[in-house]
């Protein structure tokens, strides 16, 4: 998608589902003319007005709808351009007629992400804030909503721009050493430069060591349920799903393939995976199911390892939540291989609230920030911070002021690429192409 800010664009921003109101968004240099041609005199800026919409207001030819109209003159608009919104009755015929009228007056349908791309191009938001807008539109859980809203509001951008401002000051001192080598600047200047670089590196390293918590919130986590046949794995999946998602049978080996359901824990999106029972088998299909179960263990953010009463496992997977089932028919050990056992009975419901609390605590531990710094939400952000940090590490190794200054400038460029200030043109199509139409 190429940037075409000279065009006036429109899109249905409220979606295509049946509803009472449909919001048509328009932005571009011809917005004032088009709105005037459709409803006559422009309403007051940023105040809703009830107006008839005409195919041509000057001749009052063919009423299209009676709608709420909002006029947003630039630069105080979402895109920074002149724009307006039409809050229409949401009948498909009305939407088609208004769309046809907008085209007839010179507007064109917007491409995916084009409104937000124009907001970025016009300085209304930086690239990280724009990505936060996309995440906010896609948010399904409370944790996703909170993280995306903070990013769209500039929380992550402020971290990176703060680093860039501090780096600019360090570079200014470094340039002074380069430009005035004969001025006998005090040694404290050199010490201060190295100290400031070291402090920035420490903060960047800490930021990168978030254990992919932000990405887990954005994409969701995977909890794999594993254990021997007839341990109660499918029954646990059904309890988590609150429906009969998996077949439950006393016949060992009923589950041959992985079965997934999506839920939430502590406001975090979690995909629960029921896997084939772990055992040695000559059945080729069941053996493939066991292989896939072990694959899911390696990929999972958390393993729920189950065993029935009387059959504790010989070993426990690293970091697993160990669940002993059938507590209603016998005693379960308090721990196995140093791992605490959560005793439950999926038949009577015994221990299930406690298990749910343990799983919520695990979900929070895997996603909660240990500091006030916002979490990384995309691999692109992590790569940019790593590039900046690598430049700072090379700067610390340089004895020549000119070489150190060049590494500091490269570090600033890496931070600038994150927010979109420099060198991101090749990224724009990929980023904004993931947006929905109308945003």
UniProtKB/TrEMBL annotation:
<comment type="function">
    <text>Exhibits a very high intrinsic GTPase hydrolysis rate. Involved in the addition of a carboxymethylaminomethyl (cmnm) group at the wobble position (U34) of certain tRNAs, forming tRNA-cmnm(5)s(2)U34.</text>
</comment>
<dbReference type="Pfam" id="PF12631">
    <property type="entry name" value="MnmE_helical"/>
</dbReference>
<feature type="binding site">
    <location>
        <position position="251"/>
    </location>
    <ligand>
        <name>K(+)</name>
    </ligand>
</feature>
<feature type="binding site">
    <location>
        <begin position="249"/>
        <end position="255"/>
    </location>
    <ligand>
        <name>GTP</name>
    </ligand>
</feature>
<feature type="binding site">
    <location>
        <position position="124"/>
    </location>
    <ligand>
        <name>(6S)-5-formyl-5,6,7,8-tetrahydrofolate</name>
    </ligand>
</feature>
<dbReference type="GO" id="GO:0003924">
    <property type="term" value="F:GTPase activity"/>
</dbReference>
<dbReference type="Pfam" id="PF10396">
    <property type="entry name" value="TrmE_N"/>
</dbReference>
<dbReference type="InterPro" id="IPR004520">
    <property type="entry name" value="GTPase_MnmE"/>
</dbReference>
<dbReference type="InterPro" id="IPR005225">
    <property type="entry name" value="Small_GTP-bd"/>
</dbReference>
<feature type="domain" description="GTP-binding protein TrmE N-terminal">
    <location>
        <begin position="8"/>
        <end position="124"/>
    </location>
</feature>
<feature type="binding site">
    <location>
        <position position="230"/>
    </location>
    <ligand>
        <name>K(+)</name>
    </ligand>
</feature>
<feature type="binding site">
    <location>
        <position position="255"/>
    </location>
    <ligand>
        <name>Mg(2+)</name>
    </ligand>
</feature>
<dbReference type="InterPro" id="IPR006073">
    <property type="entry name" value="GTP-bd"/>
</dbReference>
<comment type="subunit">
    <text>Homodimer. Heterotetramer of two MnmE and two MnmG subunits.</text>
</comment>
<keyword id="KW-0479">Metal-binding</keyword>
<dbReference type="InterPro" id="IPR018948">
    <property type="entry name" value="GTP-bd_TrmE_N"/>
</dbReference>
<feature type="binding site">
    <location>
        <position position="25"/>
    </location>
    <ligand>
        <name>(6S)-5-formyl-5,6,7,8-tetrahydrofolate</name>
    </ligand>
</feature>
<dbReference type="Pfam" id="PF01926">
    <property type="entry name" value="MMR_HSR1"/>
</dbReference>
<keyword id="KW-0547">Nucleotide-binding</keyword>
<comment type="similarity">
    <text>Belongs to the TRAFAC class TrmE-Era-EngA-EngB-Septin-like GTPase superfamily. TrmE GTPase family.</text>
</comment>
<dbReference type="InterPro" id="IPR025867">
    <property type="entry name" value="MnmE_helical"/>
</dbReference>
<dbReference type="InterPro" id="IPR027368">
    <property type="entry name" value="MnmE_dom2"/>
</dbReference>
<dbReference type="GO" id="GO:0005525">
    <property type="term" value="F:GTP binding"/>
</dbReference>
<dbReference type="GO" id="GO:0005737">
    <property type="term" value="C:cytoplasm"/>
</dbReference>
<keyword id="KW-0342">GTP-binding</keyword>
<feature type="binding site">
    <location>
        <position position="439"/>
    </location>
    <ligand>
        <name>(6S)-5-formyl-5,6,7,8-tetrahydrofolate</name>
    </ligand>
</feature>
<dbReference type="GO" id="GO:0002098">
    <property type="term" value="P:tRNA wobble uridine modification"/>
</dbReference>
<keyword id="KW-0819">tRNA processing</keyword>
<feature type="binding site">
    <location>
        <begin position="325"/>
        <end position="328"/>
    </location>
    <ligand>
        <name>GTP</name>
    </ligand>
</feature>
<keyword id="KW-0630">Potassium</keyword>
<protein>
    <recommendedName>
        <fullName>tRNA modification GTPase MnmE</fullName>
        <ecNumber>3.6.-.-</ecNumber>
    </recommendedName>
</protein>
<dbReference type="GO" id="GO:0046872">
    <property type="term" value="F:metal ion binding"/>
</dbReference>
<feature type="binding site">
    <location>
        <position position="254"/>
    </location>
    <ligand>
        <name>K(+)</name>
    </ligand>
</feature>
<feature type="binding site">
    <location>
        <position position="249"/>
    </location>
    <ligand>
        <name>K(+)</name>
    </ligand>
</feature>
<keyword id="KW-0460">Magnesium</keyword>
<feature type="binding site">
    <location>
        <position position="85"/>
    </location>
    <ligand>
        <name>(6S)-5-formyl-5,6,7,8-tetrahydrofolate</name>
    </ligand>
</feature>
<dbReference type="InterPro" id="IPR031168">
    <property type="entry name" value="G_TrmE"/>
</dbReference>
<dbReference type="InterPro" id="IPR027266">
    <property type="entry name" value="TrmE/GcvT-like"/>
</dbReference>
<dbReference type="InterPro" id="IPR027417">
    <property type="entry name" value="P-loop_NTPase"/>
</dbReference>
<keyword id="KW-0963">Cytoplasm</keyword>
<feature type="domain" description="G">
    <location>
        <begin position="223"/>
        <end position="308"/>
    </location>
</feature>
<keyword id="KW-0378">Hydrolase</keyword>
